[in-house]
Write a structure and sequence with these properties.
mainly alpha; single chain; 3 helices; elongated
Length: 50
Amino acid sequence: MLAEFPAFQALTPADLAGPFDERTWPGYHPADLKYWAPADLGEVLFNYWD
């Protein structure tokens, strides 16, 4: 349902399994990223939300 609203971006499993690019997803603290050592975008979003 949220995908119908332009303010939201629904990510596909392929998007979440892709690499994390800090330029595309600003606002994450470098120390957090170093601690989490994410393998993909999904891990970054999960750890931030968790």
